[in-house]
Amino acid sequence: MTIDGTGQQKIKTGIGFLDHMLELFVRHGRFDLELVCDGDIEVDAHHTTEDIAIAIGRAFSDSLGERRGITRYGSFLLPMDEALVMTAIDISGRGMAVVELDIPSEKIGTQFDTELVEEFFIAFARELGATIHLHQIAGKNSHHIVEACFKGFGRALGEAVAINQAAPDEIPSTKGTIN
Predict the structure, then answer these.
(1) SS3 string of 4-30?
(2) Among 39, 52, 150, 162, which residue carries the largest CB count within 10 Å?
(3) Which residue has the higher pLDDT, 119 or 179?
(4) Going by DSSP bridges, is the β-strand pair 73-80/83-90 parallel, antiparallel, or unpaired?
(5) What protein family is recorded (predicted)?
(6) Closest alpha carbon to 80 in 155, 161, 3, 162
(7) Which H or E run includes 83?
(8) For residue 172, what pLDDT is reported?
(9) By the 8 A CB rule, do 117 and 49 touch?
(10) What is the pTM of this model?
């Protein structure tokens, strides 16, 4: 995992739709990621999806170290055809995700249960120590809604981990009420 990347990826999870979403997340965030996962997809995609989110969230946390110089906050409003999703992140040290999506179908493709979108972002937030919000504003196509989430999340996270040129040596405060 390289945070200051170019969007290069080599991803093989065994879950085609998840591969596609991770490729878009990496490309839009301008991260580099090489990921191979041999999960228990013969059961379902749940553990594989959650474990991948845990691994990537930890990789980001480890790469950021003490968070020196990062912007900390990022947000993006992403249209994907008829879908519109707002994504916001605060690398606060407090891991939580608020995911408000109305995804019409229960599955995308043959393996990906749409309830796993929320599971992915909860696990990622917990491991990174970030507050993540995903709010669907519009959308009827399940694929478009989820794609808007992953693209927008890549963009918002890319903004949050970017070096704040006004304070490149500052460690963002996560204590007290005025942060």
Answers:
(1) CCCCCEEEECCCHHHHHHHHHHHHHHC
(2) 150
(3) 119
(4) antiparallel
(5) Belongs to the imidazoleglycerol-phosphate dehydratase family.
(6) 155
(7) strand 83-90
(8) 86
(9) no
(10) 0.94
Find the domain containing 39 and state its range.
9-161
Q: Is 45 left (phi over 0), alpha (psi -120 to 50) or beta?
A: alpha
Taken in order 41, 46, 51, 52, the sign of the CA dihedral is: positive
Of 3, 13, 16, 69, the C-alpha closest to 39 is: 13
Residue 169 domain flag:
no
Taking the C-alpha atoms of residue 129 and residue 114, their distance in angstroms, rounded to an integer, is 24
Residue 42 CA to its chain's centroid (Å) = 25
Tell whether 43 is covered by a domain. yes
Number of domains in the chain: 1
Q: Is residue 2 part of a domain?
A: no
* Mean pLDDT score, 87-94: 96
Residue type, 68: R
Q: Is 110 helix (H, G, I), strand (E, B) or coil?
A: coil
Whichever domain contains 19, its CATH number is 3.30.230.40
- Rounded mean pLDDT of 118-141? 98
The pLDDT of residue 9 is above 50: yes
Distances (CA, A) of 44 to 39, 41, 89, 112: 9, 5, 29, 8
